[in-house]
Amino acid sequence: MDGLLDGVVVLDLTRVLAGPYSAMLLADMGATVIKVENPKGGDDTRSMGPFVNGSSVYYANFNRSKYGCTLNLKEPEGKEIFKEMVKRADVVLENYRPGTMEKLGLGYDVLREVNPGIIYGAVSGFGHTGPYSKRAGYDIVGQAMGGLMSTTGWPGGDPTRTGTPMGDVLGGLNLAVGVLAALVNKAKTGRGEKVDVALVDSVVSSMQNITMIYLAEGRIPQRIGNRYESTYPYDSFPARDGNVIIAAGNNKLYAILCRVMGRPELIEDPKYLNVKDRVANHAEMREIISAWSSQFTIDEVVKLLNDAGCPASPVNTLDRVVREPQIAEAREMFPEIDQPGIGRMKVTASAQKLTNTKSFPRKAAPLLGEDNESVYGRMLGFDGEKLARLKEQGVI
């Protein structure tokens, strides 16, 4: 099935998570993404777990739907081959430390001379401008420096990294958004664009209303567990067999919750009358709700409240997530691919659900250099003799 990005050619120089995730999103939506790897080992995640039969599931998940070739960009002939590929591409993605591509002689200023319409997407720790631009940056650095860690955790506890590399994921998402906007502009004007995304900026941007608390009030937001700064009850609560989320974010939903709990008198109680009152008295309110919720199982609380119209959900462990019919079946979030070296395996789908096309894993992740013959043959017209010479010389 053709995707929305059918016909768009992406050269993917990225590795590990933020860049490969961004390229994966484009590939799942139909772009022809060619992952260009160093002949000596390729993407770092090929050697990162978890493993099945000695093959990296980490690599397979983030690099499905892509084609794969090898190219040594430090070799003069490798540089020239890459430039020829750029002439036939729409997008180049990289996540090297800023300045690396320039040292290779393949920075944006060079590549736009080769192809004025090229869209150059770069994701790095701190971006391509500013005093910290040359620093190495990882997900945990983005979460820490962008403020996310300072507000994640429990009162009195240490700052906490989120359980998934959210800085990398946000960076990858923002890179994809920027590239898609640049593709729209290219369709209108024919001009290319450089999309410069920083992990730190991506985290800062995601903080939004939390940052606004400080900008508006001068108050530094603290770690408050699962509670929300702006409304209550909007928190996790105990059940007999785990924890549930109750999100009664306005007066109407709060009234529903009170009735389900059999405590209608709380609706008109001055201490809890409006959102600001419930936020101010959240500790007492939590005790009231916890005393009720702890009588039931997770699923009982969730059903009672949702049936009445009040948002609630389980705090799912991953074994529950992969069995949730809404997630796994209706939304098809764990499709299977047939991955060489691993066999049939489930991957985590992209979140975009489209009406007339489909965003889904289109092929397995490539083995190192798997598509050298087809990529270089179709794209540049290389024959078997030339490919053999390039391999012998360490160019591919």
Structure description:
- This protein is an alpha/beta fold and 396 residues long.
- Helix content is 39%, strand content 14%.
- It contains 17 helices and 13 strands.
- It has a six-stranded parallel sheet with strand order 5-2-1-6-7-8, sandwiched between helices. The chain has a three-stranded antiparallel sheet with strand order 9-10-11. Strands 3-4 form a two-stranded antiparallel sheet.
- Strand 9 (234-239) and strand 10 (242-247) form a beta hairpin.
- Helix 1 crosses helix 7 and helix 6 packs across helix 8 (199-207).
- 37% of the residues are buried.
Summarize the amount of helix as a percent range.
25-40%
The count of β-strands is 13
Secondary-structure element order, as H and E?
EHEEEHEHEHHEHHEHHEEHHHHEHHEEHH
Major sheet: arrangement of strands:
5-2-1-6-7-8
Count, helices = 17
General form: elongated
Radius of gyration, CA atoms, in whole angstroms: 25 Å
Distance between the termini: 31 Å
Strand content bin: 5-15%
Mean pLDDT rating? 96
Poorly predicted tracts of residues: none
**Helical/strand content category:** alpha/beta
